[in-house]
Fold this sequence. Notes:
By secondary structure, this protein is an alpha/beta fold. It has helices at 2-24, 42-50, 61-79, 103-106, 119-131, 155-164, 186-205, 224-230, 239-242, 251-256; strands spanning 32-36, 55-58, 91-94, 112-116, 136-142, 171-178, 215-218, 234-237. The protein has a single domain, classed as Alanine racemase (TIM Barrel).
Amino acid sequence: xxxxxxxxxxxxxxxxxxxxxxxxxxxxxxxxxxxxxxxxxxxxxxxxxxxxxxxxxxxxxxxxxxxxxxxxxxxxxxxxxxxxxxxxxxxxxxxxxxxxxxxxxxxxxxxxxxxxxxxxxxxxxxxxxxxxxxxxxxxxxxxxxxxxxxxxxxxxxxxxxxxxxxxxxxxxxxxxxxxxxxxxxxxxxxxxxxxxxxxxxxxxxxxxxxxxxxxxxxxxxxxxxxxxxxxxxxxxxxxxxxxxxxxxxxxxxxxxx
Length: 257
């Protein structure tokens, strides 16, 4: 049941990606889909991995750490089964707000942090990454909609902050992330994503991000087509992938809610 529904939902999402790419002459191969799994249980995540999905996203640090640990253990057990070829370990994306006191906890499990929004947070990521002898890829979250209730650095301050990140050797700035307003107003959504793309192009032109600066994380289930049309390379999709699949609140999540 879960696999059949996931197959249907993935097909619909892929069709939406293909149509959006066709409108602007892009290849769907340029788009990486991050499956945001916060509403589903480990059984759904395991099924996704077995179906070939490799990029998983979580918005809460505790849930990312817990789920990544459990999936790693599941993969380890699968590796001992005769004639079993376990799927590749997923790439975990932190797509929600990150507090400085949670950096140490999440770094060992995270492939890409989408939500860097201050120099102090960047310095903490750099310091903790140095202790792990790794370079951590991050995206600079930009408040391109200029909404006071949202995280993200102001557009006017983004270039200066990105320039400061050059001094942090254990942090790698790979691009920008932005969120559109929760609205049905297509013009507002397009304006937000368009402003993020303009800023991205400015930073590329000024060579602020360096050779790794090539990612744009724009769009979620309700608006990712608009992100694709302006150049998104990453889309963060949850509800569209898991429509019709029962939402799960696992014991640890319920206790921390």
